[in-house]
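The passage that follows is intended for readers who have already worked through the single-chain material. We present the inputs for a multi-component assembly, then the predicted structure in tokenized form, and finally a short commentary. You are encouraged to pause after the input and sketch how you expect the pieces to fit together before reading on.
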Amino acid sequence: MSAALAPVGPLPDRVVRDPVLLAFADQVGGQDAGPVAVQGGRTQWNLGGTADPAARLIRAPSGVVAFEPAEMTVQVRAGTTLDELDAVLAPAGQRVALQGLPAEATVGGVLSVGLSGPMRLGHGPIRDTLLQARYVSAEGLLVTAGGPTVKNVTGFDLCRVLVGSYGTLGLLAEVTLRTRPRPQASVWLAGRADPADLFDRLYRPVSMLWNGAEVWLYLEGYPDDVAAQAALAESAGLSLVPGPPRFPAGRRSVPPATLRHVRLDPAHQGHFVAEMGVGVVHGEWPGASPAAADTAVVALNRQIKQLFDPYGRLNPGRDPMSVPTTRTGQP
Amino acid sequence: MTRTTAVEPRLNDALVIELAACLSADRVHTDHLERALYGRDASLMRGDAGVVCFPRTTAEVQAAVRVALRHGRAIVPRGSGTGLAGGAVPVQQPVLIVTTKMVDVEVDLANRVAWVQPGVINLDLTRQLRPLGFHFAPDPSSQQSCSLGGNVANNSGGPHCLAYGVTSAHIVAIEVVLPDGELAMLGGLGADPDGYDLRGAFVGSEGCLGIATRIAVRLTPNPPAVNTLLADFVEPAHAAAAVSAIIAAGVVPAAIEMMDQRITQAVEAFVGAGYPTDAGAILLVEVDGLPSGVAAETAIIEQVCREQGARSVRIAADEAERMLLWKGRKTAFGAVARVKPNYYLHDTVVPRTKLLDVLQQVYAIAERHELIVMNVFHAGDGNLHPLLVFDAAEPGILERVHAAGEQIVRASLEAGGVLSGEHGIGLEKQSFMAWQFTQPDLDAQARLRDAFDPHARFNPGKVLPAGSRCGDLAHLDAQHRDRLLADGVWV
Amino acid sequence: MKLPLVEQDLASCVSCGLCLPHCPTFRVTGEERYSPRGRIEAIRQVHIGNEPADASFIDMMDSCVQCRGCETACPSAVPFGRLMEAARQGLAEHTRYQPWYRRVGYRTLSHHRLVLVGSRLIALAQRLHLVPSRRLGLPDRLPLRATALRAVLAPAGAPRVWLHTGCVMDAWQRDVHSAALAVLRVMGVAVSLPKRTRAAGCCGALANHGGLVGIAREQAAATMRSFPGEDIVLVDSAGCGAQLKDVGHLLDTDDARRFSARVMDIHEWLAEHLDRLPPAPGPRPAHSVAVQDPCHLRHVQRAHLPVRRVLAPYLNLVELDDDGLCCGAGGAYSLLQPELAGQIRNRKLEAISHCGAAMVASANPGCSMHLAAAGLVVRHPVQLLAEALGLLDG
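Having made your guess, compare it with the prediction:
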């Protein structure tokens, strides 16, 4: 049909006109403006390689732009802290699935690092929270990836690639996140129990931690459901506690099944905290574990970086391929 | 169908001989009539398949890809062919890699995943998992037929993705034959694989970034309690208002589906689910989880629906009734043929709070173009599925359908929505991409594609419109493009 | 090639693909050419697109089991069976699709004495080990001689029915008819039998499925004439029942339509007269029975549920988890397409072994022979019922 090609050009509201974002893009500058690095709350500053000291250090803009409770989405600038965001969402009985992360961390920071908190088992990985991202490209242009609605498959899913990219492909300026209702009841329990057995008996617990001896369990939901699940846990030897244990600084990820069958040397007990069902182990390890590098995957990573930032100016020194403390390996 | 410029593959072509050597002669098909069957999927478009291959293993897929690359041929992956946007319609007489003979399933309960080959049918997997107490959460309406490879390619949704998330949230790792013929594992069973989230990039890439050969899908535990409600409204507006009111009440049901009167009547004739055919619109709402939450949410939803003017709210008494209510919803698209033989379907998403407004515009647009429109959609997500139904034999009707479709897309985007919620862009909706995205936006997407497939060998001519960067369609030779358009590739 | 079809039927398929998993040949091949959607598209290409009706097209049509599982799955209500019959009719008329020997074979079925004599010859040859039965898909031991069937008398005022006896079934599975008569006798029903001569031979189903509509019409008309009067005609073979219910459409006369309206699958009738069935004399057997729905009962007659209603009071029934997928018998299909039929049967065997039943109930002679040939214990529901009522010896 002759009319097959629709008129070219985005609808007017698709062009970003927010002066705050435009100013941020100016601050980043074009391809010749030299290396630039973004800092948020510096809560995970040591991850993903050492920031190049030669890079100009800037901050992303902050502030909640729009929050419509009935949409269950929030549009927020990347430099906003999790605390500030939560203060806007809480009165409406909502929150985002970025729980258990430092309150002073910024939204852009935690997304760029991409590491989920201890509620990942129940809330899902933080990458699934991001619906739309506006970022400044290596050319200094504002780019929109994804879309503002809760469901969207229009074009390639750049949002997923941006989460955990350590700002090496683009600098997050503003994001739209999915929100969730806050639960009516929640509770932490802990005690000595077999984590695998308990895990199989509960229905979708939000978090289950294990240090080789003790199990911590976090439940959320409607009061009666939480009470019933808690009773199950109590019958297995757990009792109410105020919160989770302290996490050692290091972090590795393993297939979740590895943790189910692990028989530990008693000397290791208490020296790590493992997220059951997820496979993240928090602990201290001397040195880096060997990387299981798939050459095709490494090549793709290099190629993506090359095409998005051929000038090497976005967060130089950072590289998601070399995150020693998060290497996949045996605990 | 015109065949003037088509190059007929012959059994003694080097390409065919080499493919047959990699697979086996009986799984490399060149028959003209058969290629015609693979010229289309569930959309209205038609292309030209080159050679049709049916590999069984990863090694065979990789070998077939390498042969195709050596011969400079494009490659189009295809699952069950249930896509609605022409994503599997062959362009450039490609080597078609059909995954329907790749149906192995390996359940790894300890890791709560199943490793599946791409041809496994979505519902087959869920059925197989049922005795173990698990299921695969994405449940597109075509789930009885669609393949998991296709689900990955389209980042499929379905009614239950309202609470459970779309396919991307349920894919842990993907073994992929990349466009250069290399094999790679994207993602992994560990929580934080190194590097960029290539798994996330691959899901929803509509066959443009390679072909999945093994997929690790997350197993979701079956909920201990489920309630399905059918609310019956005189006015579609009241039903739409109820959707927002349910969400505003702090409840995110597992699913909220809406059907208007025309589609309800068409579907009821097929399934006999007891849908009220005199209702202006019905809502199908499901809540699941632990029993007291389910009871609480059921009560809230029932009350909200009544407050918004529902004439009745029926709660499915048992599993059989529940399945029947869902069967009606899931077979809705097919049932429109009872009204008219053709349909053209859009898949836009609008902010939930704009649902009513856009819905009213959809009815007005259809009326202006003297077309029948039926609405059956994922209301909870704001994911509209307006079906323009027509008889293609009627002169001039395609122009009207096209014009109405364009206005519906425009109205959705103007309301702050997006082009596609789950069907993808494929061949059909490319030209609207430039409405939603600016040039730098499209350029960024094109860079991602170039990183995987610099020569646009995989599923050429799809997703990104011409000129996005190097321009997908720039790789298309002019003859092919003209022929596609002439043969009814219309949007 | 123009095929004798209704173009509206072709247009009603929107290519959604929801039929694919319900097609036995697609299930075992994964190929579009062996799927309902693919076959419809092929018919379109030949009928509208001027593609030649070549060997490839014939293969696509001939490989269809005609189970019509796609029809129950189709939300658009595409009359696939009608399209397939039209395609085959066109092929039979214009190509060498049905060679002379097959036509002779179908015609032979009209001559019931020939069928009986032929069957006995095969049975004799089997005893002498002259016939590779398994390879030909024949039952292991065809009966050498069958017990005579007798009409059932009942006092005036009792319900009156006919029992359709058919061709191959009468020769090979007359035991089923005997069991049906025994059950009807204890229910106090008067049963008439057609004269089993040329008049009441084959109902025409096999010829119709093969596209030999002329032969099918002759056979259907002859069958119809052998059931005069207004009494209900009970059929204990699902395939024959489906055909006889369709005679009205096939012959397109008022007489034929009236006749079709009198036809009932025997289980439909029994389910409506459960009150006439006595309770089981003994304890309920411990073993369970898998119900295999013949396609022409489930998808065509849509009368598979009555089988359960009739048997459930007497036996422990289990359902198969394969969504009623065809077993691959398909009348003459298992003879003509042994390879596909075998692959399709393997899926069925898997489903049966999952469910853990000791035996299988199947209401169609083709299915039961096809499944028995794989080593399963298969009984007709009516036989199981008669057994449960203590009406059969041993």
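Commentary: Chain B has a mean pLDDT of 91. The radius of gyration of chain B is 23 Å. How closely did your sketch match?
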